[in-house]
Amino acid sequence: MYQSFNPTTRTLMGPGPSDVNPRILSAMGKPTIGHLDPEFIRLMDELKGLLQFAFRTRNELTIPISAPGSAGMETCFVNLVSPGDKVVVCQNGVFGSRMADNVRRLGGEAVIVEQEWGRAVDPEALQKALKANPGAKIVAFVHAETSTGARSDARQLCEIARQSDCLTIVDCVTSLAGCDVDIDGWGADAVYSGTQKCLSCAPGLSPVSFNERAVEVFKNRQTPVSSWFLDLNLVMGYWGEGQTRAYHHTAPVNALYGLHEALLILSEEGLEASWQRHTSNHLALRAGLEALGMSFIVPEPERLTQLNAVTIPEGVDEAAVRKQLLQQFNLEIGAGLGSLAGKVWRIGLMGYASNPKNVMLCVNALEAVLSQYNVHINRGEATAAVLAAYG
Ligand SMILES: *Cc1c(COP(=O)(O)O)cnc(C)c1O
Question: Is 136 a member of any domain?
Fold first, then answer.
């Protein structure tokens, strides 16, 4: 017989989803109401305001798309790219490749700025590509590459794109709430994020934000947006301002309660305080991992604090270690993706999961498990290093 599903409580320190704050889970368990109920409309208005706060933007069109981060990515491309458009895509990991795939599927031409995995996007390489492609309409890049742990300089890349009169599409899925995101300050035109990384909400929603320049583009397209569900001209009829909210699709009501609570928690903590917390826990984790003999693949100035990609010690079966961590300690860490598969672990410290208890658990569990292999470890050193890092 089938029974109710009762998942084990895990500690989620992979590339996402991250641990969900219990406050968010209980918000999601509140009674479902109609998606056109005046009370729900009030929640939607608050959500827009809270998202504007999190993204640091005044963009009117700042809403959650009713699907995960990948749908936010697709929303940006499907609305802004028309057949024949040239789009410069900076590619320094898995998610940049997906952007290029989006462009090609829409009949656009993807000009790739290739960057070694584990490094930030090179601003000079972007400049060169724009010079060589004067007809380019859009520049797309990932702020925080979750596949490698590298953070690119979004402000500078947006500035370079603007000088060539290009719109920007910026992936902020892993950066939002974890490190400095400043949509209006950067002058980014279209951005998307996710709920399950540093917002510590359940997966399944994608906050997006479009400025006036970007809105003009999809309002004045020569060809209709090829996706019905993600066509913002239609979605705005439901999420837009004004009294007349028309049915587009049934909003994921309870998921949106969760996002509202997640953003409220972020506003209570404050953006800067949240970024600072991610930094201090990253530094402590780093001290512990380095004491265990692991090293970071991303050079320090380009490193994310919320996603730590580290080398695997010689002679260690990396999949077996992850399996043991999950089975014995209920601790999930991430494997390498793409060209980094089998070469790195990706240890997330995202949102609610970015805390000293998780840092200690991860370092201690890794020390215990790695000690079974022929790896040189001075027992106790890593814990001391973590403590010292916290001061
Ligand atoms: C996780 C992630 C995505 C995709 O989000 P999903 O919710 O898994 O669809 C896109 N970009 C980056 C940088 C991510 O980390």
Answer: yes
